[in-house]
Write a structure and sequence with these properties.
By secondary structure, the protein is mainly alpha-helical. It has helices spanning 7-17, 22-37, 41-54, 60-71, 75-84, 90-106, 110-123, 134-143.
Length: 159
């Protein structure tokens, strides 16, 4: 999980996490991304820190805070946030790694970015029958690769 709010804030957020419904989390996420869009890393850190406590092991709080750092012109901080995030789900990890690849590019670490993005893109081989994760689609897009399997044939228009 990302480093962030003080222990008392994390405890309060953790307690609130059990009573926050999906609509509450969605609203707080929107407010957090509004702060991130204005490069307000201080407010974004508070909001996304609370969301990380309420929804541990999810990618979106780390992505939100990283977005604030990217918009503030501090990609190295974004990379650090994304590296420190703890997730177990493969799709969540793909999302974090793809965003980290973007942050690495913005930090001028192009070779490192390309290696990471290629690993994410290659991990979701379309022939496996598994749909590409959002993170794998993002990685492929950032690499300039097709995001749909090559064997996918568009359906003809309905009459």
């Amino acid at each position: 999980m990302m480093a962030g709010p003080p222990a008392d804030m994390r405890a309060a957020a953790s307690a609130a996490g059990s009573v926050l419904g999906a609509d509450d989390v969605r609203l707080l996420t929107e407010v957090g991304f509004l702060a991130a869009s204005h490069a307000d890393a201080v407010r974004a850190k508070r909001i996304f820190g609370a969301l990380a406590a309420a929804r541990p092991h999810r990618a979106f709080p780390s992505v939100g805070l990283a977005t604030a750092w990217l918009n503030a012109g501090r990609p190295d901080e974004a990379v650090a946030v994304l590296e420190q995030a703890l997730v177990e789900d493969r799709d969540e990890r793909d999302t974090l790694d793809s965003w980290r690849g973007l942050a690495l590019q913005m930090a001028g670490r192009v070779d490192e970015s390309r290696r990471l993005l290629q690993r994410v893109a290659d991990a979701d081989v379309p022939e496996s029958g598994r749909a590409l994760s959002d993170g794998a689609r993002l990685a492929r897009h950032l690499l300039g690769e097709p995001t749909a399997p090559a064997h996918t044939v568009p359906l003809p228009p309905s009459p």
